[in-house]
Every structure is written in structure tokens, then in C-alpha cells.
Amino acid sequence: MKPFLCSALLRYTPGLLAALLILAMPFTAQAEVAFTLDLWHGYSFYYGDAALVATNPAPATYHRVESHNGLIWQNAGNNNDSSSSNLSLTNDLAVLMNEVTNGLWTLTLNFGDASQQIYTFSVSAAGVNTGLFGTADVTSPADGTTATTNQPNIQWTGPNFPEVYVQVAENDFPYAFGGSATLPGTTTNWTPPAPLSAAEQSVLLIFRTNGYAGVTFTTPTGGTGLTGWSAVADLNTYDYSSFTVPGAAGNSALGNAVDAPELTWTTGGDADWFAQDYEVYDITTNAAQSGFIGVSGTSWIETTVQGPGTLEYAWAIFADEYDYAEVEWNGFQENYLEWDWGWDTGIIYLDPGPNTIRWTFYNDDPTAGDYDAAFLDEVVYTPEPPEYDVEFNLRLQRNYRNGTTYYLAFPDLPSVYPPAATVHEVESPNQLFTGGEGSSSSANLTSLDAVLDECTNGVWTLYLDRGSPYEEQYTFSMSVLSLSTNDFPPVVILDPIDGASGVSTDPNYMWFGPPSFDSLFVLVRDNEANSTVGFSSLSALTASWDGPTLAEGTNTFSATYTSNNFMGLDFTEPSGGYPLSSWFSTAEISTAASSTFIASSGFVPLPVTIFPPVLIGGDLGLSFPTQSGATHFVEWSTNLVTGPWLPATNFPGDGTTNMVTLPATHPAAYFKVETE
């Protein structure tokens, strides 16, 4: 190994040196930290989540804890409180526990601040197996059924855990909460404290073991200022069940009286409107009447509907001179009746978005006559059918990282017109794969069969303007025409290799993958800063990339090949809502790999191992592993002690094994390799 020489001139001044040392010492982060590792099981899937509480004092920026591959992490602080969500989702408990126990966790106090301190700790687990988690199951009301009462007794079975949490709430906006309770784990049923609304309801059932003794944590080491540390693991097994509470929403007396029980009606003023059956329009059996009010009094009734659409109504006034009634649309007068006009009809063409329509009776005359009231009947709202143009794409991916091959599916909506007032979203049958306009997420599954099972065993759901009063919901299905693991050729990262250290901060990335694919995307991330350093879209024929300069520390490089317009999948046209104006579905397949390595600007040459020489057609062949970012000098001498050492060749290292060939006419000699 060639030595590196450097020189410097230092003038020693005691007082100045002491001052410089004091100025150079940053404030040390201090904190008391409580860490909770949550291990979750539901259906056939497992994932990990983290909770981090740091006090005394509060973080200057934020504190962060993460597992060794970064699949489970949590930030806690005054400017960052995000978490890893379900990045570790898997159908194999062993994969999750490998992430939890096989490697060091990192705890960073005051991330990015001058006082930042970095600690590491480990997690051990005993007795954590699939049998321990068991299975939670809501047995009544069964999933997809209609309850026989609006206050049903909810029943379940589950594992032998110390406690169980149960919650019921509406499935759709505005997600009205129906109640919750934390009960002893032996409890098998619970009744909501009050009747539930007439809507689709969802039960969340969670069995919990808080502070599971089989999972233990070491005390973090490596930094200073950690004044308190506690760590526990909680096990959770959950289930969801959706059921319907009978009865039409908005089925009030006023709604029935005006023949529009599907709308929500409110009334107010000096007296409320009410239902009656002695004054009606045409052949209906009842209508709504304004309340009994005195001079200068008002009585109103209103509803809000989501446009576009048309609202038709019949209304009347029977009153004295100067009394009148009006219809307001979003605060502006739309129609007007006065005195003893009698019955009339009206129609309002509503704009897109929320539209509030109010009918008001005004009593401006002290004398009484007839009913001295206004009436409303036969309200009909006809929504204008939306004309959505929808493009849907599903990308199936093979991804090799950290020594394991995963399969994923990323659905998204590249184009939907008109744009969402809230959000447009799409979900696979069990919500393992979700996406929207410009976003997509996927669970990590360990086989292609598991991905295809999720994609084909059930219906996908498409939500347009999800969560709004005019949400449209559709379902469609996927089938496989032709697809196998052979359609996903592996990607291999050659340099820097996974797990390498001492890599130059200016590496040249090398790999190989399927050149027949349509596109290639490469990306490098700074793991410690949790940020993207650089990326590029390349030709699939490309096998190297001179990326940006890296910061010292842990980085990850990934290469992803994509084949567009894959014809091996088929999707049905969505149904269930208003017919779509157009539907266009496509599929892609991609294959990817990543390499995680440690970069160092102070380059450290590594020892070289020369393999036994071989004869190649009579010539001498010397081979040895090269170091990425280094230059190797091959030299020879006939005298091992006195030299001289003469150059044979030199070349840059790329992390692969290189063969040097010397002619047979070369004199007998000693050979050495120097790296710099």
C-alpha cells in the first residue's frame, strides 16, 4: 500500500490554542428519550412502526430513530414529526424481524443541528412468531352485511392478549365517530354507547400486548448527552369489518314532506318549518309549511347540494299584502312570490361545487289572512352526470435490496379530467397497493405470486373526488394473460457493491440490466440526510453513470429499468358510478436493484490480495480484486530486497476482479500491487 504524505506548519501559542478549542466545541444535545417499537399483524401481513418521545429539553430541530435498513423510522421534534408508515409491510414475519434485529438501530438527537449526537443500539427478540400474534376476527356484524339494528352488539374473537380496543365510525366523509372502548383482552363483545347513523360503518378491532418482555433493547451508545432512555415493544393484531346500518340518510320529516329525503334539511328563523298534509301541490300527500311568525318575523328552510345539476321545486304563498317569500341560491335572490300568489314552480341550474338553496317567508303585515304562510313541495335534485376521462396505470416491479428480492405493485392515475376537487384515488382489493394523481405506494411482498394474488383476488376500487359529497366510486378487476418471474431480469450493481466502505465521494456507478427495456432511471440518496443527491433518466443500454459528489457517510444507489405497455395484464372497465366518458388502462413492468455503501472523502486504500498466477496461452496472468475509486499500480523487481521496482501497468479500480497479462518473455520477477 503506497503511503500518503502531507505536511503542515503549526505555530504554537498557548492562549490562542485554548480559545480556539473552546470556540470549536459545539453544544452537546441532551434529551430524555422514550422509544416504542410497535409490531403489527393483520390479515396475512406484518409491519413495524415506531414512536419516539423526547423531552427535557425539547429538540432544537428533531430527533430521529431508524432501523438498520431505514424501513422503520420516526422523527420527533418541533419541525418534523413524520414516520415511515408501512414501508416495512410484508407477508413474511421473518422478513420484518430481520429488519428489527439483524443490524444496529440509529438514534440521532437534534438532527442536522450543530449539537447533533448519533447513537446506535440493538434489538433482540425471543418468542416472536406467527402463533404469538394469532388472528383477530370481527364475527358480528359480519363484514359486508346489514345490521338488524342501529345499535348492534359487536362481537369478535382474537389472540390471548391483555387488552382489546374496539372503535366504530362511518366509512365515508364526514366519518362520524360512533364510539370506542379499551377492554380486557378476554372481552368478546361491545355495544356502541348510542345509535349509529344510517350509513356504512366500519369496526376497527386491535388486540394489544403493551411492553412485551420478549423484545429487549440495549442502551444507545456512541454519543453524549442522553440523560434518560426507555424502550418497549408492543404487539398488535387487528381486523376491520364494514357493515351497513339500515335507514336512508337525511330521512327527516321535512325531507319526506318535500319529497327529497335524500337531502339534508335545516330550518330556522323566528319559527321552524314543519310537515303538514292539508295544503299540497298536485297529487302529493304532504308538504312543508313555514312556521307561525309575527310582524317582521321570518321562517326559513334550506338544503345544500353538490353541483353541477338541476333543482326543481314547487312552492306557494298564501298571505296578506306586503307579505312575501323568496328563494336564495348561495346568498343571492333567485325567485320571489308575494301576497296571495298560490302555487308556482321553479328550477335552478346549479354550478359545480356546493350550492345552498334557502326558501324564506317574511311577514310584513300585522293583519291575518288565509294561512299567512309559505309552502314547499316536490323538490327534485338531478345531478348532472360527470364526464370523467380516466387514465390508469399499474407498474409491477422486482426490487433487489439488502440481499432480498421483493415484488411490488404501483398503481397510479396519470391523468383524470376534470381535476379533483378533493382527491382521485385507486386501491387494490386489500389496499396493499394504492395510488392517485402523481403518487403511489406498495407493500413489500416476497413473491410475484403474492402480488398477483392481491391484484386478481377481488375487485379494485376507483374513487373520483373521494371524501366529497359528490364522490363517485367504481370497481374493476384485473386478470393475468401472461406473466412470470422471467419477465423481470435481475439488475446487478457492480460498483459500488452493496456493503462497501471507503468508497470515493465521487464514484463512477456501474451495473448491468436488461437492455431490451424501454427506459432506465438511476438515483442516489444520502441516507443520513434522508434526501436525494442526484438522479437521471438514461438509455437502457447505459451501464455506467458519473453521478454527483457525495457527502461522507451512508448512501444508496439504485437503478430501475422499465418496460412500457406490457400486454400481459388485462383490466375491466370500471362500473358502479356514472358511466365514465373514457377509460384507458396500461401496465408496465420494471426491475430494480440498490446498493448501500459508505463514502469517504479521505480515501482509504485497502489491502490487495493477489490470486495465484495462471498461464494464459503461455503468458502470465495475475488477478486481484480492485477497489472502486482507487488507482492500482503493478510493479516488478528481480530483487525483493534491494529493488529497483519497475512499472508494469496501472489502471483505475472499479470494484471487480481484474486480470493483468504479462508476456512469456518477461524475466522472472517478484510482483507487487500498490493502491492509491
List keywords for this structure.
single chain; 676 residues; mainly beta; Immunoglobulin-like; Jelly Rolls; 4 domains; eight-stranded antiparallel sheet; six-stranded mixed sheet; 5 helices; 45 strands; 48% strand; disordered N terminus; P/Homo B domain-containing protein; signal
Strand content: over 45%
Q: What is the number of independent domains?
A: 4
* CATH-derived architecture of the largest domain: Sandwich
Intertermini distance: 7 Å
Extended strand count: 45
Unreliable segments of 5+ consecutive residues: 1-28
**CATH homology-level superfamily of the largest domain:** Immunoglobulins
Structural class: mainly beta
Q: Characterize the biggest β-sheet.
A: 8 strands, antiparallel
CATH topology heading of the largest domain: Immunoglobulin-like
Helicity, as a percent range: under 10%
Which CATH top level class of the largest domain fits?
Answer: Mainly Beta
Query: Helix count?
Result: 5
The Rg value, from CA coordinates, equals 35 Å
Average pLDDT for all residues: 85
> What's the overall geometry?
elongated
